[in-house]
Amino acid sequence: MSKLKTKLIAAFIAAGLSAPAAFVAYDLTLPSEGLVLSPYADPVGLRTACVGHLVVKGEKVKDKYTEEECMTIFAKDYKKHQDETDKMVGGKDKFASEWQRAAATDMTFNNGAGLIGPSTMISLIKQGRHIEACKQLTRWVKAKGKTLKGLVIRRDKTMPYCLGELSWDKQKAFEEFEREYNEIKKATSNP
């Protein structure tokens, strides 16, 4: 198991997040956002650090973060976005699966609740029209009016999670990830 994966899993467990949420964060959100240990400007010019962490006014920002610090920030951000997403749709039971919940959380993480909340995608999830909701992902590939290749790739990776249709390879990867998640959870709960 990679050290970064171990740090991510431990941070997600500490934040009270599920194995599917941690897996999607590891497999989709982290590679899409990237891990940058120093503050930087994102594609639309917003000050960012670690894994797409939007720096808010008045927040203390370090010149450099450790991977562990970034994974802790990432887990807290992911949990905040998951809570916002759950609230937007009317509760976590509105999703077709934990996978769809994680896909919608990734969308909120990427775009913010202000943009995602009033979206057709969220409206369709509320109505239980899950396949139609997932098809909305292809509309979210632009930033400042320009189609970004990275967003096209990210939405393509998000679609199977949203539909709950993981390939055999992804299912096997998740089984291994979940085993590691459970080992770390057991070790941290029984020091």
Concise structural overview:
The chain is mainly alpha-helical and 191 residues long.
In words, what does this structure look like?
- There is one protein chain.
- This protein is mainly alpha-helical.
- The radius of gyration is 16 Å and the shape is globular.
- It has a single domain (3-55, 66-182), classed as Lysozyme, CATH 1.10.530.40.
- The longest helix is centred in the middle third of the chain and has 23 residues, at 67-89.
- The strands form two sheets. It has a three-stranded antiparallel beta sheet. A two-stranded antiparallel ribbon has the order 4-5.
- It is built from nine helices and five strands, in the order H-H-E-E-E-H-H-H-H-H-E-E-H-H.
Order of helices and strands: HHEEEHHHHHEEHH
Show unreliable segments.
Answer: none
Total count of strands:
5
How many domains is the backbone divided into? 1
Shape: globular
Largest beta sheet, briefly? 3 strands, antiparallel
Output the structural class. Answer: mainly alpha
CATH class: Mainly Alpha
For this structure, the CATH topology is Lysozyme
What's the CATH architecture?
A: Orthogonal Bundle
Helix content class: 55-70%
Strand content: 5-15%
Mean pLDDT: 94
Write out the strand line-up for the largest beta sheet, numbering strands in chain order: 1-2-3
- End-to-end C-alpha gap: 20 Å
Radius of gyration: 16 Å
Number of helices: 9
